[in-house]
Amino acid sequence: MSRSAMNLPLGFRFSAAYAGIRKVPKDDLALIVSDRPATAAAVFTQNRVVAAPVELSRKNLRGSRGQARAILVNAGNANCATRTGERVALECARAAAKALGVHAAQILPASTGVIGVEMDAGLVINALPKLVVGLDASRFDEVARAIMTTDTRSKTAFAEIKTGRIVARIAGMAKGSGMIQPRMATTLGFVVTDARVPVALLRSALQRAIARSFNRISVDGDTSTNDMVAVLANGASGVKPPAKAFERALTDVLESLARQIANDGEGARKLVTIEVEGASSERAAETIARTIANSPLVKTAIAGSDPNWGRILSAAGNAGVIFDPRQTDIDMQGVPVCRRGLAAPFSEDELKKKLDEHECLIRFTIRGRGRGRVRFWTCDFTEEYIRINASYRT
Amino acid sequence: MSRSAMNLPLGFRFSAAYAGIRKVPKDDLALIVSDRPATAAAVFTQNRVVAAPVELSRKNLRGSRGQARAILVNAGNANCATRTGERVALECARAAAKALGVHAAQILPASTGVIGVEMDAGLVINALPKLVVGLDASRFDEVARAIMTTDTRSKTAFAEIKTGRIVARIAGMAKGSGMIQPRMATTLGFVVTDARVPVALLRSALQRAIARSFNRISVDGDTSTNDMVAVLANGASGVKPPAKAFERALTDVLESLARQIANDGEGARKLVTIEVEGASSERAAETIARTIANSPLVKTAIAGSDPNWGRILSAAGNAGVIFDPRQTDIDMQGVPVCRRGLAAPFSEDELKKKLDEHECLIRFTIRGRGRGRVRFWTCDFTEEYIRINASYRT
């Protein structure tokens, strides 16, 4: 299962182990280490309730002026709304820094799991020696699996940036299946690249790439307290790519990860792409798409392969965005189902069959001169989502 | 099953019949008639997509300057996003006016059911004679049943206003089970009273009563295209109650109906009351309560009797309202589960048992001087909701 280190960015090593944070004996602690100082940028949750590791990562990035050597991440406990949260995050980061021989401010901690349960720093500290010994350039996929919670699949994505004859590589991983409506940030996502990228460019490229990827997915409309995406650029390839080329490659990687998250939404059987065109602005288009994506009635109709376009139109009407329903067209799976706000003739049986496919496309077009357009991803809403979440904690 | 006409407001008659709009032979058309002109007020959906009967009711209320004689309502077809919608609504209202010998502008039409399917005015017009013949002061409950769609129970509520020795009565009915997050209005609700209420007072009392009742429930966060609550006051009791007494009685009736709707949410097994206290304003409190009420993660936890207060805190953190999580307390079923943003000690087993009860209370308190407080109602989120909605249309 391990990816050849040949295709991964140079100068990064990875390691995962079971530290006893999860109840089940499955890797729950991981390290991503850059062999040299890397420029680093991250985006964080906009939830008012913020987990301790998120606060510390933010602080460390400020303290190091955008430099990092390692990401320390655990699953099984969010370390959020805990009495000892700050101290635990700090102790774990310090122990990792010591074990790696780097500054404590160069460690970015991240956590995911249950909220409100005290976390035992000892478990992390005890597991660190094993973790450090295990560091290897080829263990990328093991880390991607260690950060999974209710995910059914690990999520990874890769890109290359060619500059003349030399190549820089980007590799990303993410986790996330429920509590997914990243806002300005998301779930956990880690991206490493051996391109040489100044920190100011890294930050702005990440902001723009996130806006078009993680901020355009929703599984259930809930934004986690622990969302974080971090990117580390260590320059080991010697390539300093043009800003636009780097941003494009980073966006490709993040968009792929975001789609994989929507596709692996809790209980989901289908990946739903929503395209909105002709809105008054990109923001208006995104708001319409998000409202459709979060409508339980739309998502259950997709689960039932029901071409119920009335629910799509009604959901859009609730977006708080001004548009004329009489100038609105809707297509499902390429089939016109609504023209100028009214039913278009279509074969219900044929469309139902098309909606049984794994990927569903909803196209919402407002006629006229509006130039706001957006693509947004979500999943269908099945009984399995309820089963997973009625018993996740206990 | 019929309620004695003795307990109903004087001077109103009711009738229901099967007109063939639904596929199943169950009453789908109803009339509520005041024997004398009644003052009337109504609130309507804030969805940008608005059904034809909603537009016509709004227009008629304007045209009649707040006078009405009858409400004509059908289930089985929303008459929304239909080519012939306006004409159908107008023809039906005109036919009802003719059959009752009143002005067309004195009819308030309302519809509920599937969106985007053309409605046959002939079915309504053909059924009108039967409907008018059947008008009777005792058939209130039959109308309440005729307007049901996925509802499992009809919803009615009653109040009295005593002024000296004479009594005015208020009787209300509502329908609604899915696509429920009324905003400024709601689902279908009809209230009749034999109190004498000037139209300006009726309007303002309805606005305020709706804000504290229908606007504080959510089943699934979707706002329908056909939402409407109308109140008719015909003065037949001779009582002209004090404004405050009338508003209080009207609020009681609407709050009871709103709770019944949340309680009968699609697939719901539990009624959830959310009390928020200590927010910076009533609006802030309502936003927090609504965000908790719409969180699928909170609602599935309640379905599983899981005291997962971390999800409640996380949901509140997404409300877009400023508050300090470290000053936040959460109680479930009267049991402290979170104090100052941290876990409070409680017996998981005992609380799980308490959460198996039909009514669940979540109390979210922000310490300090904030005076914003609110009560909000929702229901749990079960696999049955998915089953109902994956196949509603076809």
Question: What this model shows, in words?
Answer:
Two copies of one chain form a homodimer. Chain A has 394 residues and is an alpha+beta fold. The first copy, chain A, folds into two domains: 5-263, L-amino peptidase D-ALA esterase/amidase, CATH 3.60.70.12; 271-389, Roll (Ubiquitin-like (UB roll)), CATH 3.10.20.340. Helices cover 32% and strands 28% of the residues of chain A. The first copy, chain A, has eleven helices and 14 strands. The first copy, chain A, has helices spanning 52-63, 85-100, 121-133, 140-146, 199-211, 243-263, 282-293, 296-303, 309-317, 348-355, 383-389, and strands at residues 12-17, 29-44, 67-77, 107-114, 155-163, 166-175, 188-193, 228-233, 271-279, 328-332, 335-339, 342-343, 359-366, 372-379. In chain A, the strands form two sheets. In chain A, strands 1, 2, 3, 4, 5, 6, 7 and 8 form an eight-stranded mixed sheet that branches. A six-stranded mixed sheet of chain A has the order 12-11-10-13-9-14. In chain A, helix 2 (85-100) links the parallel strand 3 and strand 4. The longest helix of chain A is centred in the middle third of the chain and has 21 residues, at 243-263. The radius of gyration of chain A is 22 Å and the shape is globular. Chains A and B meet through helix 8, helix 9, strand 12 and helix 11 of A and helix 8, helix 9, strand 12 and helix 11 of B.
Secondary-structure map with pairings?
The structure is a homodimer of 394-residue chains.
Chain A lengths: L11 E6 L11 E16 L7 H12 L3 E11 L7 H16 L6 E8 L6 H13 L6 H7 L8 E9 L2 E10 L12 E6 L5 H13 L16 E6 L9 H21 L7 E9 L2 H12 L2 H8 L5 H9 L10 E5 L2 E5 L2 E2 L4 H8 L3 E8 L5 E8 L3 H7 L5
Parallel strand pairs in A: 3-4, 7-8, 9-13
Antiparallel strand pairs in A: 1-2, 2-3, 2-8, 5-6, 6-7, 9-14, 10-11, 10-13, 11-12
Helix pairs in contact in A: 1-2, 2-3, 5-6, 7-9
